[in-house]
């Protein structure tokens, strides 16, 4: 039995199938962790969703920013963006079943007691100022809202760059918005844990006073699995935590990468984009 964590699919269904074949993945014995952004930009987002959904409880998925964007478009009234490739999902006959499934996905998955110690997967990373237990609790606040009666109203107001600095006394939509941004959009932060939302490229694009979140130390030592940041090309230079970057830019012509959580081996297939 193996558990494989895979970075952002972003609608690259052919590569996803090729990677599963390369892994000799068997859902009767193996499990998948998917680090979010299953959809958008690539050619077949609908097929990616259906492929993952068919795996049932053999696949664990965390929400990424593109996944939340789909929900905001479909159920929060947000406009589509020029480069979106969401129409196949929005026009699908099983659209509501798919959206219900996606909306029930968490922001954080954790596995205690593995060979690597506690393993935590989120889409963008883990704020150094948060313990794993605190992060799990905060993720639960957003998940409860997404699955509650006020989900539509939350999706309407989810977007925004403020506030950018975490405080425990934040409340209401500002608290929920920042939790979402940390889990799904974080790249560069400052020493106080404030997020920068402008720089999206490699490490040399860091604004003055900011560094990648994984270059700040933590008080604990989880194994952190994340996607989101394709410009890293799967590398985490200067890391001061145990972090594995798995978005290797398949949708941009790079590769799609899986990490064997038991052995630590990485397996990749080339992009067809």
TrEMBL record:
InterPro entries listed in its UniProt record: ApaH (IPR004617), Calcineurin-like_PHP (IPR004843), Metallo-depent_PP-like (IPR029052)
MF annotations from Gene Ontology: bis(5'-nucleosyl)-tetraphosphatase (symmetrical) activity
Homology family: Belongs to the Ap4A hydrolase family.
NCBIfam families for this protein: apaH (TIGR00668), PRK00166.1 (NF001204)
Annotated catalysed reactions: P(1),P(4)-bis(5'-adenosyl) tetraphosphate + H2O = 2 ADP + 2 H(+)
Signal sequence, renumbered to the chain: none
Function: Hydrolyzes diadenosine 5',5'''-P1,P4-tetraphosphate to yield ADP.
Enzyme class, broadest EC rank: hydrolase
Keywords of this entry: Hydrolase
Name of the protein described by the UniProt record: bis(5'-nucleosyl)-tetraphosphatase (symmetrical)
Lineage: superkingdom: Bacteria
EC number: 3.6.1.41
